[in-house]
Amino acid sequence: MVNGFNISASLSPNAERIAPAASAKLSSSAAPLRYPQKSIGKNDDYLEIGVVKYVPPRLETGANNLRLSTGTEKNSKQKAEQTIQLPIPSNIGDTNQVDWGNDSFNPLAAFGAEQVGNVLKSGDLGKGLVDAYNTTISTAKEVLMKGGGQDLISRYFQSLLVNSLGANTTPEGLLSRASGSVLNPNLELLFRGVNLRSFQFDFDFAPRDEKESNVVKEIIRIFKISMAPKTGSNTAGAGLFIEAPNVFLLKYKSGNQDHPYLNKFKPCALRSMGMNYTGSGSYATYGDADKTPVHMKLSLSFTELNPIYNEDYQDTDIGVGY
Asked: In sequence order, which residues have a C-beta less than 8 Å from that of residue 7 and are 6 or more positions away?
């Protein structure tokens, strides 16, 4: 219907309908939902998305380690409750990132850290403290015998005096103003941690017949249901906790095999889902009882549950890996 008027549509009245889900539960025996509705040939490439129950991380202890498991392996090995097969969208890609940041450590701070380390490693804590004290006094005397050390101490007390009068300065600032020099910061770029990858996919739906329109509707419902948290209304303690939504296993496929080139995915959470029911810019529906929109756009934003580690590439030699 366009602006309230029916438009013609190639919807077959005898086409088999897919029954809508009776509840928000997904059936593990359901056949894959595929759009567009056509047989997949051995050379056809597509994106397969499986829905599985979220498995939280667990604390693992062993003879030589204590770590929090990521749950990636357990999530990956689950049988999908529902599988969706969609054409590979445009503008696909992957971005791998790690977190590096600037860090400085001047010689005086490095000396202090070394002495603390020596105390902690000492078998005799009392003796370690005495040795660290004696070393610090000896080194301080040696530094103070030099002009640079005397200048730094002088600027330190000057900054205390100036700050007591309402200024806001540091010994390093006064030293720089007076001599044009500062303590060597030993600035370096240091590794700080890992990041999670995100993926954005955009799909166009333009159902060509009644069966395909129902497949599209069921795909949309499954994404909406699967990304929603659960209140556990039918269990004891309902309302006290909220259970995590389902997570998704993404695979680029070629025929019935993994794609031989494109990147692999770790289990993902669906962070955002956007539906545009007027994909062509104006409201239009087919004239059937369901009022199926003529053109729809689906946007999905996934984020992997766990970072990519060097060891992950040892488990796969297919294509570019992760």
From this structure: 1, 284, 286, 287, 294
